[in-house]
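FW: tagging you since you asked about this chain on Friday. Here's the raw sequence from the shared folder, copied in full. Didn't touch anything.
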Amino acid sequence: MSEDWRSYTRRIEELAARSGLSFHPVDFEAVPDSFMMEIAVYGLPVRMPHWSFGVRYIYQLIQRHMGHSRLFEVVFPGNPGHAYLAESNGLAENILVTAHVLGHADFSRNNLLFRRCQEQVSERIVEHAANHARQISQAIEAHGAERVEAALDAALALEQHIDVDQALRRPRYPEYAQAPRALIDDDFRKRFAALEPTGAPHGAEVRRRAPVPPHPERDLLWFVAHYAPEMESWERDIFLAVREESFYFYPVFATQIMNEGWASYWHARLLREADFVPQQAYVDAIKCHSDVVRPIAAEAQVSLSINPYHLGFAMWEKVIEGQGLAAARRIMEQDDDFGFVRNHLTRELADELGLFRYNARSDGQVKVLEQDLSQLHEAILAPKYNFGAPVVCAHKVRNDGTLELAHDSTVDGRGLDLERSRKVLDYLHRVWRRPVVLTTVNQAGSALEITAP
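HL: got it, structure written out here
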């Protein structure tokens, strides 16, 4: 790979700043393609070791050999940000990728969801995750690989089950329930209640312990870490480390269409304005841009929606054309994909892009399934609900320590994969060390219990 791209980085950064982008410094580094795949699979350059990442690596390797995927860059927001570029990239690809990364950096610094999660976790997530990995290695030395793997199995099986509406560092539940207070609805009782007590109470105050949990709890990583009856401190640390990293990854997941579209809009715009880029490199970069934002569609799905680059890019172009760049920046700062798609994917744009749900048969016949706009929105957003996981809450801890979990299928209409659910319960049982019961529904809508052991 030519090193010439580095000489353009500073000039592209200066152009981006003049164009109104506001971003933390970004460290760019060219790395081998094999390392790029490792970063993409693990989610971070250094992360806690676990066999599941190896399974994902093999899948990505097969996809690449089949020509279904190629990684040009992987970027990690923070202060500073980190961008890893594939050594196999050419000059034009790296010029485009540099501009694309700066669009991501502008988004992650200014989007409220990103800012909130980074402020709670760390703006230096690469170093933070490396510390977690070092803690895991120390735990393996102290407690053995088998026990640490069991804790990681359980924690990573629950990694999507967090509650980003709660603070990352939240207190435990109150130990005692508050006594119910009678409603005072007349002047006499109000005056009487305001009087100072004239003597000591005749009997000791009876305090009632609060139930655990006091309400359905969907942050399962937090709940297990704090209320598992016999969890050791190092196991608790593993659960909380996985939870911290999940908080970091959530905004990436929840703003993918917006974020990739924003970065694609800005790399296209900066390329047009970068008169210092050689003509041939510019032509090659524009071709690369066309490949990145091309529509992709197959089988039964939402046409085009599986490529967030394409959909997000088209939506931002339409927003900026109709409302101006200042309005687009306000939307970028305040929205996630739910608000962005529902508010700004219009009927006009959907028709222009040919967005619809359809089924393509093997004989080539295409059958339109859905053209209603609100249902199109929900079809695009359905995989994003609850971090892509079914809604499962901790409902009750019985006197004998049995943990009751409840699956709420009414929230998103999704059922559970029973085989996978049983496996997750087995993992969870190893750290909860009491029976675990999950209530859900079967295909007929009847109540169903899954237990471990």
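FW: The longest strand covers residues 26-31.
HL: agreed, and Strands lie at 26-31, 73-76, 81-86, 301-302, 357-360, 366-370, 392-397, 403-407, 436-441, 447-452.
FW: great, closing this out.
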